[in-house]
Each structure stands twice: as C-alpha cells, then as structure tokens.
Protein: NADH-quinone oxidoreductase subunit D
Organism: Kribbella deserti
Amino acid sequence: MSTERVVGIGAGSAGLDTLYERGGTQPGSELPTTDMVLNIGPQHPATHGVLRLRLTLDGERILACEPIIGYMHRGAEKLFEVRDYRQILVLANRHDWLSAFSNELGVVLAVERMMGLEVPIRAVWLRTLLAELNRVLNHLMFLGSYPLELGAITPVFYAFRERETVQAVMEELSGGRMHYMFNRVGGLKEDLPLGWLGRAGAAVAAVRKRLPDIENLILGNEIFRARTVGVGRLSPELINAYGVSGPIARASGVDADLRRDEPYLAYEELARDGVLEVVTRTDGDCFARFAVLLEQVKVSLNLVDACIDRLQGMPAGPVNVRLPKILKVPEGQTYAWTENPLGINGYYLVSRGDKTPWRLKLRSASFNNIAVLPQMLPSEVVADMVAILGSMFFVVGDIDK
C-alpha cells in the first residue's frame, strides 16, 4: 500500500506552498506511515520576504530543512563591475536595506585603503556616529517585528516610534530615509547642518528614556518567554563551522566583534575608553538573541553620545578629501570588513587600475546566518520554526545579493 498526494497550503500562496505526502505501510504493522515535505514560502505570511524553506516532517516534528534562496537575486556583484566607484555606492546601499549607511561604509573603506587615502578626523568620528545610529535603526526594526511574528502587535508601534525619532535626524542630515548615500570615497558628502549635533543628542536621549517601554513589555511577558526560552539553541561549534556572526553569534557566547577586535573608524579609542562594550549571552536560544539585540541598542546609544561629545569639542574642518573627477583605483587587491548590524560584512576588491573594479565580491552576514538553519531546525516542531527563523535576524536581499 502506498499513497501520494499534493495539497495546496494557504490561499495567499498562489499554489507555491505545497504539501507532498508519500507513504506506505510500516514493516510488520498495518499502521500507515507518512513522510511530508512542506514548502514554507517563497510567498507566505510565515516567511521573511521571499525566502523558501523546504521542510521534511514527521507529523509536527521537523526532520530536515533546506533553505532555497535566489528569488531576490539581482546580480549586484556583476553590476559593481560596470559602474565607477561613486556609482557602486547606490547598489551597495541596498543589499541590506536596514543597514544602508554601514553597507556604503564597507565599500569606501576598501577603496580608500587601496588608494592610501587619509580621511579627515572629523569625518572619521562622524562616520562612527552615523554607523551606530544606523545600527540602532536596524535593531529597532527587529525588536518590533520579532514579537509581531509571535503574535504580539503592540511592540512594533513602540519600536517604530523610536525609529522615527532617529530617522528624523538621519533624514535631516542626508536627505534620505533608508538609502542615505552620504558616504563618499575620502569622507562624507557634506558637513553637518547648524545645530544638528544637539538635535541628534536629544533624539538619543528620547530613545534611551523610552526604551524600557519595549523591554518591560516583552522580556517579562510569560507568553514571549514560553515561545523563546530554550527554543532554537545554536552552539558555538556550529557558529564557527558556518561563519555565523553578529548578535546571533554573541548570543551563543562567541565573544567576537570587529569594532573591538580589528578596529576601524574611531572604535579603537571608544573601546579603550570603555564606551564600546561587547554584549554576549551563553544560552544561544531565541530569547538570548533578542536580549542581545536589545542590549546592543543601549551600547550604540552610548557610542553615539560619545561621538557627539567628541565632535562638539572639535574645531570646524573638512569632512572629505578633494578627488579627481574620474576616480581610478591603483592596481591591486584588498579585503575590508566591518561589523554591520547583522554581522560581518566584507568587500573583496580587485582593481586593474581602471575607473571600475575588476571584481568586487560581497560577503554578507545574512547568507551565513541562514546557512546554519538545516542544522538548527531538525527535531524542532513546526510551531517553533517561525520563532527560530525570526530570531536569525536576516534581510533577504542580504542573502541573495
């Protein structure tokens, strides 16, 4: 006796989410056995964007998981090769649309290293300030959206209130809400508007004052704890094997942060002054990953305050280096990596002395963070899959590039 049937899952899936059953009779028994293959995505309310997970189930228990990516692939790395170094920033800006400023930063650091450019000190501190504000914006999005995936709608309104407070000063400075285009090879687009540092400091103070609203609402909630504590544990061994980084790795006790370990911008001085703290947890579950994200927001707010204090005591000066109209990078290669909000983001740049890169390879954090799912999800139940998936804190464009 054998059976096979196909059942569509979800009216909104347009037939893309399908349940396959193939079964037979267990040897020595008349009880039928059934293997199920369930497609979650690529268009389904339970997934982030157009990520697809192909799950093999034994009842409600997950036996295997296969992430299927590429639905958002835009060929960004090949497009890099036919654009000059100023135009590249437009594309690099967008693979992780929640971390646009940090994405730009990785490109310009690589180019500046190849050209041997020394960026004005004022631009260095301002870049650090903006990178940390961008980190706050990124983390607030996940702090609001993750409880939403578990059935709690209120936290997203608190998180977006804080995001709008920070967005206001970012938009005033750069003119953009998500894609800032404020970095330039050799520094920044322009200097600060009059009084901007004061307004940025007020925004940081407001967010810090109201952040306990999110913390008290979520971390002590018994339903949230039941859905996250002990769920989706990720071991340090798997993190090292798959190159997982960022808040997810630190939630499993991996004490690694490029801002401290291989400092760039002004992070070395901030670490020496004790302002830069690396937040870690040891449990490695969904709850720990959320808690690390929340604590990192507090650290980033402290870093922004330190940068504001330094900039306020700094004399006026340039924020960029004057460059030729046609920018050519000397022949050679380099690898520049940064601690992006979601983890390690690296650019491998190869130049043949032209105005466009011969090769610009992107190492994104989200790709590695999702690659470990086949090791995490087996033995978990389907109901916990959404909690685990959401706690991996990824952006689909950062996977597919």
Observations:
- The two ends are 46 Å apart (CA to CA).
- Residues 121-149 form the longest helix (29 residues).
